[in-house]
Amino acid sequence: MTSRREAWIGERAERLEDPPLVRGAGRFVGDISFPRQLHMRVVRSDRAHAELLSVDVGDARAAPGVAAVWTAADVADIGPIAFRATRVKGLEPYRQHILARGKVRYVGEPVAAVFADSPYRSEDAAELVLASYRDLPPILSAEDEPGPFDAERSTEAHVLEKARGDIDAAFEGAHATVEIEVSVGRHSAVPMETRGAVAFHDAGRDVLELHGATKRPHFNRDQMAAALGRPPSSVQFYEGQIGGGFGVRGELYPEEYLVCAAALRLGRPVKWIEDRWEHLQATNHSREQRHRIRAAVDADGIVRGVDNIFLHDQGAYIRTHGVRVPDMTAGMMPGPYRMPAYRSRGHVRLTNKTPAATYRSPGRYEATFVRERLFDAVAAYLNVDPVEIRRRNLIAAERMPFAGGIDTIDHEVVYDSGDYAKLLDKALARAGWDRMQAEMSTRRANGEMAGAGLALFVEKSGPGPADGVRIRVDTTGAVELLTGGASLGQGFETVMAQICAGTLGVDYRRVRVVHGRTDVIDYGFGAHSSRATVMTGEAVRIASANLRAKAIEAAAELLQAPADALDVADGTVARTDRESGAAIELGEIARRLAPGSPLLAGRDPGLSAEGWHRTDLMAYPYGVHVAAVSVDRGTGAVEVERFLVAYDVGRAVNPMLVDGQLMGGCVQGIGGALYEEFRYDGTGAPLSVTFADYLMPTLAETPPIDLLLTEDAPSPYNGLGVKGAGEGGINAVGAAIASAIDAAIGIPGAIDRLPVTPERVRAILREAGKA
Amino acid sequence: MTAPREISLTVNGEAHTVRVEPRKTLADTIREDCGLTGTHLGCEHGVCGACTILLDGAPVRSCLMFAGQAEGAEIRTVEGLADGDRLHPLQRAFIDRHALQCGFCTPGFLMLALGVLEREPDIDEDGLREVLSSNLCRCTGYLNILDAVRDAAAAMKTGPE
Questions:
Q1: Domain count, chain B
Q2: Using a CB-CB distance cutoff of 8 angstroms, which residues of chain A are in contact with residue B145?
Q3: What Cα–Cα distance (Å) separates residue A169 from each residue in A161, A173, A296, A305, A341?
Q4: Which residues neighbour A754 within 8 Å (Cβ) at sequence distance 6 or greater?
Q5: CB–CB of A14 and B91 under 8 A?
Q6: Does A192 sit within 8 Å of B137, measured CB to CB?
Q7: To the nearest whole angstrom, how far is the Cα of A241 from the nearest Cα of chain B?
Q8: Could you say which of A313, A527, A593, B161 is the most buried, measured as most Cβ atoms within 10 Å of its Cβ?
Q9: Helix and strand tally (H, E) in chain A?
Q10: pLDDT tens digit sequence for A180-196
Q11: In chain A, which among 648-667 make CB contacts under 8 A with chain B?
């Protein structure tokens, strides 16, 4: 019976989300409208750095259909956008105001907002807003000397330091020091749906509603309420379907504040849908870092210590995440290696470009690229095989849990479980590594440029502090699961329904998962950092177990049977100690627990239960990526011929969805490795503002991707043993491809930056006399 | 120039008479005036393909056309794909193959695939890859979409059972 009860957990179950989506019946934010709504258009700075002398809105206000035009003076009572996640002090002055005050610091910064009765008319009027500027010299690279942010402050907002072990001793006693300089280009999530927000003030109830929320609805609701001087209970956030997030969606940006304030003050619903041109210069960028990193190595290739100095290009302001991206870069840099001494110093510098924050595997895509480039350099220096050099430095399975002695995002990094060497072996076997190397070397001998490379990584998932879930069964036996979690399209509802179904003993299709709603549940921590299955999933398991116990307790009384002889399966409580006998459906139990029922005998009515999961520990999945590439000697173009993602997820609730996460992440990673980059000209004007300039992979650029999903190291920190699945597909793609290109062109360490454009490859080949 | 004008559109076999400004795009008109919000806008400059519909059987970017240009044409959108409760083989295959995650690009991919499979039911692998490379998806990594369209091509040839 146990196996039957848990059947849904681990199934490749069809997604509950899909039927409306394939019919075009989803409700994305653009699909939500209210009668008499106004449409907001944001007027954005076309200067990278300038004093904002005046904003003339006279003509715009007089334009047809215009209800209002706002500048900074109209929202002077609303403060800068608060941090969601940082304990670092001193960053507050670098926050962004919702409309520029006195200065603009990037092209795309909001300077005015137009509200009109149609989106077309709001755009017409926006063109009539005349801002005048006095240009200031822009800072366009974190490698430039810091300059003034304002009268008191430098553009170097923070220097982030972490260390463990005795780094000086490591270098003093080393056989050799290997040093490299590498960098990752500016790119970002770019989900297919742009941002959007619809605010509606229901004056009858005095409730302000914001539609289009996601990621952290509860926290953001509280922030919005505080900014507007309202009690949180009078501001409610609603999540509908969301067209992808990957880190950038669902944070508070200026536009959410503007539509909420306007809905209250103008007395009409206000809708804002970002266009793609805006998205590419207004929504968070990410990833841009330059590292100088050196390793102290022994003659046998053991890395004794690593010293990492890096420059983080934050863009114009510090947004909701504070300095989390460089923090995670520094905290996750050691990866799967022992590296007993480690020191990191990250300079967080503001530049006159779009503000940057998290993008899928934030800090780790960067750190893995840098670390794995360093290990390749060590291997080349010592003339040891790159796989062998890694193997010698891996943390052994017996040392788990492994406390690294450093922290990230306010948590000590303690790898919970893992057998890195085992996964490496499995990945090499699955890829046919030896055969692959032999084939590549034959092809190279025949004049082709082809090669294979690999990279190892540790991911992180599920920061606490807690997650709570409420479940109730109605009189038809349908299950409603209320969670403060959120969904960005990854299959959250299906996974939560499977965990509930498997634990409670019902069909997962009978479970309705309600999420992203501040009005139905008091607390919520949303969906980010691969936390949903680890944190919300465990809360679902606990709540479902509580509900099951309650159902059995009631059934025991109703059936006059001992509780330990009862089990729940397919929504029915029945005796397990007899072939046939009395049974009762969950819906019937719910009916018998209605208010006034004699069965209650003083207990609260209803068949419902709550469950909380609390932990400060994170789960650390891990993986190996293998890439095979060829390089066109003439054009410099890189083709990824095939790719392997090997990943230990602890336990997969729905392997089909985990595979989907890994595959989708992998292709995004290929984009960042080869194609995607936000470029700027010398004045700070963005050059990547359409999909003709910002190049994302299509099917044509997608290689065959093999997935090896393992469950060798369940997390000891939750009842299911699950670890996060969202970021393992992307983490090491840049690193593995760089290594493969080095091998293909026969120049160790040649690839020192991402993306690897054809132009860059051509320059490398020319310089080496190989073009 | 911006004075609204009455036009008639045929969408999924149904006649819609709408009053729109001449500058209004076909995508906006389908969404706002016909109330069919399954056609999505991902870039509004003709690259991503989320707004792909069939116009007289051919896949087109509805963000790149004015509504007035579609007068007299047969327009098909994702809402017309299923036959009541029965999903179209393409819709079924997208679910079976996990060819969607957030679902935002899905209507565009479905209509793109429908357009090509109706015209070229025997399209080869390279041809299919080429056609499906005209739309963007940021979640799935595409390979499941290719598998789904391949499955649907086979199912469409055998017809409904």
A1: 2
A2: 699
A3: 18, 6, 10, 9, 9
A4: A183, A184, A185, A369, A672, A673, A734, A738
A5: no
A6: yes
A7: 8
A8: A527
A9: 19, 29
A10: 999 999 999 999 999 99
A11: 656-657, 659-660, 663-667
Which of residues B51, B80, B109 is at a domain's end?
Answer: B80
DSSP annotation of B97 reads: T
**Residue in A23, A279, A280, A493 to test binding to B, most B beta-carbons within 10 Å:** A23
Flag whether pLDDT at A1 surpasses 90. no
Within an 8 Å CB–CB cutoff, is residue A640 touching chain B? no
Q: Would you call B44 and A276 a contact, using CB atoms and an 8 Å cutoff? A: yes
Model confidence at A175: pLDDT above 50: yes
Phi and psi at A210, nearest 5°, equal -120, 120
Instruction: Confirm or reject contact between A13 and chain B (CB < 8 A).
Output: no
Q: How confident is the model at residue A6 (pLDDT cuts 50, 70, 90)?
A: low
Secondary element (H or E) of residue A397 = none
CA distance A660 to chain B (A): 6
Distances in Å between the Cα of A737 and the Cα atoms of A50, A163, A642, A766 are 40, 29, 10, 20
Tell me the per-residue pLDDT of A96-135, one tens digit each, with 9 for 90 and over: 999 999 999 999 999 999 999 999 999 999 999 999 999 9
Chain A 69-128, residues with CB within 8 Å of chain B CB atoms = 119-120
pLDDT band at A353 (very low <50, low <70, confident <90, very high): very high
Residue A581's pLDDT is: 78
Each domain of chain A, given as residue ranges in start order, spans 2-26+463-614, 32-137+194-242+249-282, 289-461+618-767
For residue B95, give its domain range.
89-158
Looking at residue B1, its pLDDT comes to: 57
In B, which residues are within 8 Å of A691 by CB distance?
43, 45, 47-48, 136
pLDDT tens track for A256-299: 999 999 999 999 999 999 999 999 999 999 999 999 999 999 99
Q: Is the pLDDT of residue A370 over 60?
A: yes
Residue A719: strand, helix, or coil: coil
Architecture label for domain A289-461+618-767: 2-Layer Sandwich (3.30)
- Give the closest-approach CA distance of B79 to chain A in angstroms: 6
Quick check: A23 and B91 CB within 8 A?
A: yes
Q: What is the ipTM of this complex?
A: 0.98
Interchain CB contacts (distance < 8 Å): A and B: 173
Paired residues of A514 in beta bridges: A482
Paired tokens of B122: 């025997």
In chain A, positions 699-758, which contact chain B (CB-CB < 8 Å)? 699-700, 702, 704-705, 729
Fold category of A2-26+463-614 in CATH: Aldehyde Oxidoreductase; domain 4 (3.30.365)
**Nearest-CA distance from A256 to chain B in Å?**
20
pLDDT digits (tens, 9 = 90+) for A394-426: 999 999 999 989 999 888 999 999 999 999 999
Q: Taking CB atoms and an 8 Å limit, are B134 and A14 in contact across chains?
A: no
CATH classification for the domain delimited by A32-137+194-242+249-282, as one of 1.20.1250.20, 3.30.300.30, 3.90.1170.50, 3.40.120.10: 3.90.1170.50
Among A11, A17, A22, pick the best mutation site for testing chain B contact (most B Cβ within 10 A): A22
The domain that holds B112 is classified in CATH as 1.10.150.120
| Closest CB from A17, A25, A691 relative to B38 | A25
Contact A362, A288 (CB under 8 A): no
What pLDDT, on a 0 to 100 scale, did the predictor assign at position A85? Answer: 72
Test B37 with A491 for CB contact under 8 angstroms: no
Take residue B133 and report the two structure tokens written for it. Answer: 């490379």
- Where is A67: in which H helix or E strand? strand A66-70
Report which of B27, B25, B33 is spatially closest to residue B108, judged by C-alpha positions.
B27
Between chains, do B48 and A242 touch, taking CB under 8 Å as contact?
Answer: no
CA dihedral A398, A403, A404, A406 (to 10 degrees): 170
